[in-house]
Amino acid sequence: MSLAIIEKACERLRKQLSSDERVTVQNSANIDDVRRAISQIENHLAARQSLRNLDRLTPFLDAIDRLTKPIDILCNGTPFMPFAWAPLKLILLTAQHHVHAFDKLLSAYGSIGLALPRLARYGETFPDNHQFQQLLAYLYGDIIEFHTQAFRLIRKPGWKTFFSSGWGRFEHKFDALLQSITQTSELIDKETISLEISLAHEWRQKSSEHAAKQEKRMEFEQREAVLRWLEVGDSKSYQEDKLELLRSHCCEGTSQWLTKTRDPGMASDWQRPFSDLASRKARFRKICSMLAISYALAAQILRSLCIQMVDLAPELTSFIYDECVMSRSNPSVSCLKAIVPKLMTAFQDIRIIIDGIDEVSSSQHREIIQTLASLGDIQMNCKILFASQNIPTIFSSLKSKPQLKLGEKALSIEKDIDLIVTASLQELSDRHSGGIPESILARIKKSIQARAEGMFLWVYLILEIVKGEGSVDDLQTSIESLPEDLAGAYD
């Protein structure tokens, strides 16, 4: 069981490492390799006149040195031993150029080192029993868990921006880890193993659960405060419901031609299949429909983007809370313009689709387009697609940008409409258990195709009318009286 605890902890850490870093860890023969790396880092910092008192690491390094022999016996030839010290080298090399993060990590490792056991009572001989090995496994697992959490903090996109808020979220867990290390070390040093080992697992579990509850409580309270700051009320759920409704209307196979468009100026990232876009890690895609926003102001859109990013990356809540809520900033356009690009750095790639901007008052077009387009200019990982009718107030603001004019893609649109009509009529036929003659279905399809003129909304409304007919006779009547335009379809 002791070895299993260590193996699980090492496996969690491995997942945070690249293949090259795993090799580096395995090839680290002893803690002297880490000491040499620390000396090199100290020289680099001295050359930059940025010394950070790396002596704070001495308690940790000395403690790991003391633990090497008993843990080596416990690992018994397995490849887990270097995980105690080697990750520290990688962490320091990554964080050395970020003063605040570097200081936090140095202090944390120093505290862990001071909490680790002295082992003074044991000399060169260590108890060869299950209880002692169990405590060592707990200790080793806690050390590796801290390495793992440290890697998580410094490996996310935009980690330098979010380190402070991320550390704030992590502090409850760190306190629990430090308490666990302290109590386990006391048991080892006091040689009270036989009396208290049965309680060790219980208080470790309770400490971990308490830290998790504290973290969740803090997350909930901060999220509520951020939502209030963003003034997000029922509009959020309304937007989600609207988006889900629009998604349910999608027909498989349509719009695939968009990903194959080779129009000059169209960014290659938009040309990749959307299934590929969705599969890549840390991908953020936001569809903002003006139908789902009762009043189309740039601030409202930016607020919506904020909350969508928070939903996808909850750790951003702490950042907004620290940067905006605690500073009592107002969620104005200027404030949101400053915070949104920072939030975007938490994602590898961002694709924002703004649909229906032509339904907003023309007096707001310029402000909205300039505000959102600036995000793409500031953040290289952000691309924005505006879907709209070609009206002067919109075209003038986007004329310098690459454009895809659907009016010039009539054949592709006709194919999409054909897919939609075919799928809907098949659904209608299945509902009537095949009782609708193929000739009538063919007439309906031909009639819709002849009058569609590229209007997807008209096609959707007509299909809803057709689906609502209860008999074959009613279907035949509806074919003869199909409305010619959207107004007629709504009547």
From TrEMBL:
Highest rank taxon of the organism: Eukaryota
This protein's UniProt keywords: Repeat
Pfam families with a match to the protein in the record: DUF7708 (PF24809), NPHP3_N (PF24883)
Domain DUF7708: 60-192
Limits of the Nephrocystin 3-like N-terminal domain: 298-388
Protein name, UniProt field: Nacht domain-containing protein
Organism expressing this protein natively: Fusarium sporotrichioides
Organism classification: Eukaryota, Fungi, Dikarya, Ascomycota, Pezizomycotina
